[in-house]
């Protein structure tokens, strides 16, 4: 990454980075990421997120049990390779069992399995796992039935297109960037569930600028929510499938 400076020389002006794999998959394989410099966004600590989620989401939900936070078992976290910040967040705060927009994170409480341990277990050939071996399953996009995964190498979060799971030639096409880390994911979930649709995109950008890049998950969700609001239908708050049982 190269940092340029403003004409005044007072502060950095923009960041210019060539991203070939950070925002891969459904995004363009090569892109320039240019954004205004801003003061470092201090992420919520696990404790702060937990307190806010319980007071702003769980306490106001008609079925609090469905949106409660699930933490990852410490002994199972010890067996996976994750950045310490991600490991700490999953152990101390966790992620919601389910929440808008139709997402579920029950796999967090089950120890973050590999994709092939949940999708057609025992049927994967070694070559089909290529490109997916670094992804740990944390949940699902329940509308599209796609797995949500954390990359154990750097903690980034992606949605994986389930229809392309067994196609190693579609390595880049089968992933969509969600967030730069677990803490950013948690705070983005808080934004979506506590902020009005017109304000979400800017709130997402404050939390995690790459999350609002064209083709990224939250960029699409924010746009869809705005469109649904115009039509008088808040797609993000439809009753998820698990509440019908």
Keywords:
alpha+beta, single chain, 245 residues, six-stranded antiparallel sheet
List the helices and strands and how they pair.
Elements: E1 2-5, E2 12-19, E3 31-36, H1 46-56, E4 69-70, H2 74-77, H3 84-92, E5 95-96, E6 98-99, E7 103-104, E8 135-141, E9 146-151, E10 157-160, E11 175-179, H4 182-194, H5 197-207, H6 217-230
Antiparallel strand pairs: 1-2, 2-3, 4-5, 6-7, 7-8, 8-9, 9-10, 10-11
Helix pairs in contact: 1-4, 4-5, 5-6
Structure description:
There is one protein chain. This protein is α+β, with helices and mostly antiparallel strands and 245 residues long. The protein has one domain. The protein has six helices and eleven strands. It has a six-stranded antiparallel beta sheet with strand order 6-7-8-9-10-11. Strand 1 (2-5) and strand 2 form a beta hairpin. Helix 1 runs parallel beside helix 4, helix 4 packs antiparallel against helix 5 and helix 5 runs antiparallel to helix 6 (217-230). The protein is globular. The model is unreliable at 1-40 and 235-245 (pLDDT under 50).
What is the structure about, briefly put?
The protein has 245 residues and is α+β, with helices and mostly antiparallel strands. Helices cover 25% and strands 20% of the residues. The longest helix has 14 residues, at 217-230.
Coarse morphology = globular
Task: Give the total of domains.
Answer: 1
End-to-end Cα distance, whole Å, is: 49 Å
Which regions are unreliable across 5 or more consecutive residues at pLDDT < 50?
1-40, 235-245
Mean pLDDT equals: 80
The largest β sheet comes out as: 6 strands, antiparallel
Q: Which percent band covers the strand fraction?
A: 15-25%
The assigned structural class equals: alpha+beta
